[in-house]
Amino acid sequence: SSGINAEYGDSGNTARAMVGMSYYDGCNNCVCGGMGSAGCTRMFCVSKCNYKNWDMVRGWAAQGDGIHVYDEKAGCPKICSCTNRGVIDCHDQDGVDNCIYN
Length: 102
What we know:
The protein is an all-beta fold. Helices cover 0% and strands 47% of the residues.
């Protein structure tokens, strides 16, 4: 192992933190611990969207952000946005909610 122990979502992309490194997951300030653990503030950001990205890593997105989301219910990746209500919307301009494959 290279000492990487935490993965976190950053605008839909996966970022990696080394042991002892501080990072921001889009909502909380965190510190990377040992053995895959992280210590984070316990804020719930009601004006942001919590999601799982294409790498299956959790993160937070700001309203208006376009993000790469893994839709667990549909079992596929999608390109979505975080609405002004703090809700993930995966519909395209025609109102279609399709899976994409990269």
